[in-house]
Amino acid sequence: MLTTDRRCRRAILLGAAVAIAAPALAQSPFAAVERLYGVGASVPHRLYSTWADRFGPDLGLDLNYVPLGSGAGRRAAVERQADFGGSDTNMDAADLARADLAQVPTASAALGFVVNLPGIATTRLRLRRTDLLGIFRGDIRTWSDPRLRASNPDLELPHLAITPILRREVSGSNSLAVAWLSGAVAGREPGVSMLDRTPGLAVFGAHGVALTVRRLRGSIGFLEASSARQFGLEVLDIERADGTFETLPQSPEALERGAGSYLWPLVIRTNILIPRDASQRRRSSMVARFFRTCLLKGDTLAASVGYLPLPDAIRSDAVRKLDMLFEGP
């Protein structure tokens, strides 16, 4: 059986073969489009697919993006195994310079918790930060735990084992959730991820989290909100800084305005990583052309599938970075 890392490498290498072959295909008189290949974070997968369907034909581009996680995206970009990588975590300036990569933000998304708790409406369940911390540290093992009942006095929580569902691969969602949860852990050992000690199941990809939560009674996981909706899952109501709860705003504008007042959800800003070296210039220019069009014309589409368009100042800076890579009219 292949390990996760070997599966990632195999998928990247297969995709890289497509990317390497793409120029030859595009130069054929029978080829109608240029094919671009990207690997990376699962959070923007639905957005990039939506943008590709809308803008790809007009630009003569066929974009194939494989959601293998932020770690795979960074590796694919650094090792030139794809035309671009996707990552929900930022590379620092030194690493970008060393790898000769441009890092460009594309959109933001909200991350929240999803559960499978038979007989309990998701909209009524209240999990405070301390409750979530107890679950993912392994201190709270059943839904009937007195601490969860205290947070939900009006619900008959079942005596059912809690199974946390985690991402197996390196992902921006994991990193963000760890940062949020571990902020409340005093004396945590440096460099030790609390999720390494979480009792539960580790699955591959956001789709793996969604499908497992849908099928497994008593499970809980964290997902980007639009992915949760895509799989028919509801995100739990969020705890505000004042201890009250509120439903996740459906409007991207409302979510961005309220982000500072919520303890949850967390907002992920996702990026693309594009090679800047001369040997990749032609293909990087095509990537830049595609995402430049998306940033300038794709806000409405982004909002329609549950993503947050970039603030004007950040988008302008992103377009400027893409202009530096784009060759052509």
What key attributes describe this structure?
8-stranded mixed beta sheet; D-Maltodextrin-Binding Protein, domain 2; 2 domains; 13 helices; two-stranded antiparallel ribbon; 329 residues
Summarize the structure.
The chain is built from 13 helices and ten strands. The chain is α/β, with parallel strands linked by helices and 329 residues long.
Question: SSE layout and pairings?
Answer:
Elements: H1 4-27, E1 34-40, H2 45-59, E2 61-67, H3 70-78, E3 84-87, H4 93-99, E4 101-115, H5 129-137, H6 146-151, E5 163-167, H7 172-182, E6 201-203, H8 205-215, E7 219-224, H9 225-230, E8 238-239, E9 245-246, H10 252-258, E10 266-275, H11 281-297, H12 299-304, H13 312-325
Parallel strand pairs: 1-2, 1-3, 5-6, 5-7
Antiparallel strand pairs: 3-10, 4-7, 4-10, 8-9
Mind explaining what this structure looks like?
By secondary structure, this protein is α/β, with parallel strands linked by helices. The chain has two domains: about 5-110 and about 270-325, 3-Layer(aba) Sandwich (D-Maltodextrin-Binding Protein, domain 2); about 110-265, D-Maltodextrin-Binding Protein, domain 2 (3-Layer(aba) Sandwich). Helices cover about 45% and strands about 20% of the residues. It has 13 helices and ten strands. It has helices at about 5-25, 45-60, 70-80, 95-100, 130-135, 145-150, 170-180, 205-215, 225-230, 250-260, 280-295, 300-305, 310-325, and strands spanning about 35-40, 60-65, 85, 100-115, 165, 200-205, 220-225, 240, 245, 265-275. The strands form two sheets. An eight-stranded mixed beta sheet has the order 2-1-3-10-4-7-5-6, sandwiched between helices. Strand 8 (about 240) and strand 9 form a beta hairpin. Helix 2 (about 45-60) crosses helix 11 (about 280-295) and helix 11 (about 280-295) runs antiparallel to helix 13. The longest helix has 24 residues, at about 5-25.
